Amino acid sequence: MLEQRYRWKNKHLRTHVSVLEGKTSPTILLKNALYLNQTFRQWMRANIWIYEDRIVYVGEQLPSHIENCEIVDCSNEILVPGYIEPHAHPFQLYNPQTLAAYASQFGTTTLINDNMALVLQMKKREAFSLLKDLRSIPSTMFWWCRFDSQTELMNEEEIFAHSHIKSWLEHDAVLQGGELTGWPKLLDGDDMMLHWIQEAKRLRKQIEGHFPGASEKTLAKMMLLGADCDHEAMTGEEVYTRLMQGYMVSLRHSSIRPDLPCLLDDIKRLGIQAYDQLMLNTDGSSANFYEQGMTDWLIRIAIEKGIPVIDAYNMATINIARYYNINHFYGNIATGRVANINFLSSVENPTPVSVLAKGIWVKRDGKSLDAYPSVNWAEYGLKKMEIDWELSLDDMQYSMPFGIQMENSVITKPYSISIDVSGDELPSDHDECFLTLIDRKGKWRINTLVKGFATKLNALASSFSNTGDIILIGKNKQDMLFAFNKMKELGGGIVMAENGEVVCELPLHLGGIMSDLPVQELMSGEKRLLEELRIRGYSFSDPIYSLLFFSSTHLPYIRITQRGMFDVMNKTVLFPSIMR
């Protein structure tokens, strides 16, 4: 860890100074660049000297020593800092490396990532080894430290043991604790979570909230207990209330909450004209949502909504860096900063023509460059799923008196089952399907019905879920068994089946939860899945999040979890899972 602790060693810093002294040549010289100077809040012209991954000078002077220096005339381009995504969930079928590579093409070169999948699916030693190795890619990867699983696990006390949390909080790559999906436990007196928040504060790290619909008094209480930021504002009034209580407010535009245009309209309506406490995020959207871009898309929306242009860029760069106390390295173009720079064709078009990430060209003149090394995921324990147990019709007995009704992609409520579920197939004249959550190791299961997911879906099997356990949905038990076995043969993934044949499949070879495909290729498979589901009656926007959140107890009102059917509001297990 000591070699990782400082961004540059002493010998590197001496070399950087020697560039200014004319003893060493810069590696890149950006001449006559019009760039965003966030100190003066102006577009200014300067020459920018870069040595390897660091900006060593910004100003009027030119270097005297330019041997082996790449000189770029920037007279016709506009330069802004590399964008920062402050709220990434890098496991939504894509993986951290493929997300970073894709995001870089749109100018997002720093990501602050959820660690949930690492905690649930990997040993701590493997996870920390991955964090270390991801330092070698051009993008900068920071992380959160989760304090709860946002579900009901069989072994939560073991996974979220104090020693584990302490190790994550102390890790140099971790910038914050949270997000606090388990905040009701905190308000109810969970002193261990409060201790972890205190530890994060001692380490000068932030706390990310998760407070949808919270009242002013609740927001004030959470601020007193240590929360610093929240990304769950869904109206301008909620933005205003959070600002009034001292929060940094992260404005979300995601696949299940595409709220940014309305939030910005509301902000203008309410007369909010100070933007320093605002930042932009995409909240770990599904791959298809990123087809139009990433942070650049959000900046474009802000500019189109009349936000002052410099503030629009600041909400994706310096505001985030200042909040996380990393502005001495990231979020601006100035001497000493990491060389993350986007080259734009115009101020109004935030999608970059060229991108430097850590001083490496990852995009040049509109063309993607192969700058991201592949990752050997097996070294970190992520390989194809090996399912050594069998599923049978005996596991598919559905006798529960109530099921789960979907209100939208992610909100579910209980409903009374009134149809006959004794047969092996349900008719397609209603929107109820069999639903099973089964342990990835085959130790337990829970069976119920789901209403509103589809009308004509014979079978879908998915190893992608909140906990990595297996979800089966469908109207035909034989096809559900067939889909499960095909998913098993794939080594994990999502399989849709009908009449003993595969309709579509998405292999997820990294532990059954992530794909090793580039994001662009993953989009094709995800689109096909959505198209086939819509044909069969899926009427919502995001099936990936539907699968992910069936077990997520941070959302109302009822969930299927490892421990059984769970009543979120009353925090009780209504029906326990059944051991096999």
TrEMBL record:
Residues 78-359 form the Amidohydrolase-related domain. It catalyses: adenine + H2O + H(+) = hypoxanthine + NH4(+). GO terms for molecular function: adenine deaminase activity. Its EC number is 3.5.4.2. It comes from the Bacteria. Keywords: Hydrolase. This is adenine deaminase.
